[in-house]
Amino acid sequence: MFEIYKFSEIEIMLFGLTFIRLSACFAVMPVFGAAVVPVSTKVLLSLVFSIVLFPMIQNGMTDPVVVKNEFVLLALREAMIGLTIGFLAQLVLSAAEIAGSIIGFSMGLSASQMVYLAFGDQATVVQQFKRTLVVLFFLAINGHHYWMTALHQTFLLHPVDQITFKLIGFK
């Protein structure tokens, strides 16, 4: 009746691998990986991004034998790629937090620790301000758009159906 519902087993597995990469990325992303963001929101965002990105990256996926035989290995690879992307984005905000902590310590504000709800630990006022400032700056320069483009580029650089990594730039 409808052609949209006729997915092969391989396409469903490839969509699952795409979903695994995006879920791992959203689990540790700076804004979405916070403790105050519900898990259902992270899963829904991963699902929506998977639905949007999967048709764009599907044309390069051609080896169904590798996907069937090595699915667990591919799933671990996708999870590691997603975690790496998320941790790299987290690294930028961690630098701002460390700078805020150093500034707060030198100003004598290290004694005024407040509970930081996003991570469930304590942070100085300056540290929280620096982190909020970096997140707002990231959103103001459309960093989330660049992040989405970079995420799409990772699927082109490291396709879902290949076990090996391309070492472009490491020659």
Short précis:
The protein is mainly alpha-helical. It is built from six helices and two strands, in the order ααααββαα.
Which radius of gyration do the C-alpha atoms yield?
19 Å
Question: Can you write the helix and strand succession as a string?
Answer: HHHHEEHH
Question: How many helices?
Answer: 6
Strand sequence of the main sheet, in spatial order? 1-2
**Global morphology:** elongated
Alpha carbon gap, first and last residue = 51 Å
Task: Give the helix level as a range of percent.
Answer: 55-70%
Oligomeric state of the chains present here: single chain
Beta-strand residue percentage: under 5%
Uncertain runs:
none
Largest sheet: 2 strands, antiparallel
* Whole-number mean pLDDT: 77
- Structural class comes to mainly alpha
Can you tell me about this structure?
With 171 residues, the protein is mostly helical. Helices cover 66% and strands 5% of the residues. The protein is built from 6 helices and 2 strands, in the order ααααββαα. The chain has a two-stranded antiparallel sheet with strand order 1-2. α1 packs across α2, α1 runs parallel beside α4 and α4 crosses α5. The chain is elongated.
